[in-house]
Amino acid sequence: MHFTDLMQHQDTRHVLGISGGKDSAALAIYIKDKYPELSKKIEYFFTDTGAELKEIYDFLDRLEAYLDKEIVRLSSGKPFDHWLQVHNGFLPSAKQRWCTRVMKIKPFEAFIGDDAVVSYVGIRADENRDGYMSSKESVKAVFPFVEDGIIRKDVFDILERSVGVPEYYKWRSRSGCYFCFFQRQGEWLGLKRNHPELFEKAKSYEKGVGEGYTSETNERGFTWSQKYTLDQLIERAEAAEKLRFEKEGLIATDKPKDNARWQEIIAQEIDEEDDDEACDVCRL
User: Please, which residues have CB within 8 angstroms of residue 132's CB and are 6 or more apart in sequence?
Assistant: First the structure.
């Protein structure tokens, strides 16, 4: 059964979450262009943490105009600082993703309630991951890109002929909050260069991190990285960038050549951090 057959189900809601990233946006455009009748039924939504980059909001505006349909903004109703206090000042991490749970998943599940829902997920045919799956039995996830064989190159083609690629991909490989702990050190450097005020704000959340800081003295939850402070990450990123420039004549802020993607440039960076899988909600 093709995913479009589910349109025939009565009393079923069709939803598609827009993360601000390339895949979910391309999926919304793909469905509008190829399956317009289905697109009319879909409710588009974006879960706003209040800590998104300006580029994401700009991109959402362009996407909304192209879809000619509202992208409903969801929210936990409280800012990040409130939830940080609720969690005793412990910053979220790959092992303690309370930010995803309270600021992304709960608003979504409140949005759909107990309704029968078909959720359209932007995982591509060339990926090997699951993404976020609701635990609600009333929610059925479908994967149009997987069923139709859409791969990464197709996603960029879809975006480039419609709303364009989000601007933050010039220095960042994923959507999400400006302080996302899944960022690689080169992406933190990109944040510092492109949004210095947000970088300083992210630094202000780190506690007790004097000059003698080491990962062994870190109290879990008080720095964004489990190994380094943000200042240490920047030092490492700049050193890696210098080495890369000397060896290859390439730095993270270079313009891509020969159709190279920004994500591919970032992925090439010399980075000794653990490359944990990014937030499944924000990657869609």
Answer: 104, 105, 280, 281, 284
